[in-house]
Write a structure and sequence with these properties.
Layout: H1 2-24, E1 44-51, E2 54-57, E3 60-63, E4 69-75, E5 81-87, E6 91-99, E7 103-111, E8 120-126, E9 128-133, E10 141-142, E11 145-151, H2 152-161, E12 167-173
Antiparallel strand pairs: 1-6, 1-9, 2-3, 4-5, 4-7, 7-12, 8-11, 9-10
Length: 174
């Protein structure tokens, strides 16, 4: 009888030891089994949203038409959409302490002053860009678009036929 009691006590204590060992394992950032891995550190960046006034588009230095204004929305560090109205290029805002993963997004519309549109041969450009600032930050992302028009009337007709011509969007997940 003593042998049976001793055997049951040994099994009970042994089972408790295995259960206890599992709880004593240090947290390795989710990596089971130790392996010497250190916890992953959270990456923090700054994100700069910009509307450039000039840029090289397809080998040509282009600039925003005078009199253009932009209604812009962008995502802040908390993931909220912020809207600003009637800004002119160049324009920028920098968001600090952005933690990864993050969906950076800027979009908007262009308004124009018809009296400022050139009468002949011009480019209509939208120059939005998102830059990431910090060690190991990804490359900037842009959505430069350039449209060539031979006359003011061609531009006005183009906008009437395709209102999306006045919209822009650029985004990057990192």
């Amino acid at each position: 009888m003593k042998k049976l009691t001793f055997l049951l006590a040994t099994l009970l204590i042994g089972g408790m030891m295995f259960t206890g060992c599992k709880k004593d394992t240090p947290n390795n950032g989710g990596n089971e089994g130790g392996g010497g891995n250190t916890p992953t550190t959270e990456k923090v960046y700054s994100v700069k949203y910009e509307l450039l006034e000039t840029a090289e588009v397809e080998g040509v230095i282009s600039s925003v038409i005078p009199g253009c204004k932009f209604n812009v929305s962008y995502v802040d560090a908390d993931g909220k959409t912020i809207e600003v109205q009637q800004v002119t290029a160049p324009w920028s805002v920098t968001i600090e302490n952005v933690k990864t993963p993050f969906d950076a997004k800027m979009e908007g519309t262009v308004t124009y002053d018809e009296s400022q549109i050139p009468d002949t041969n011009f480019f209509f450009v939208k120059l939005p860009m998102i830059s990431f600032i910090g060690t190991g930050a990804p490359s900037p992302v842009n959505s430069f678009k350039s449209y060539s028009f031979h006359s003011k009337q061609q531009f006005l007709d183009g906008v009437q036929q395709n209102p999306r011509l006045l919209q822009f969007e650029v985004s990057k997940t990192f």
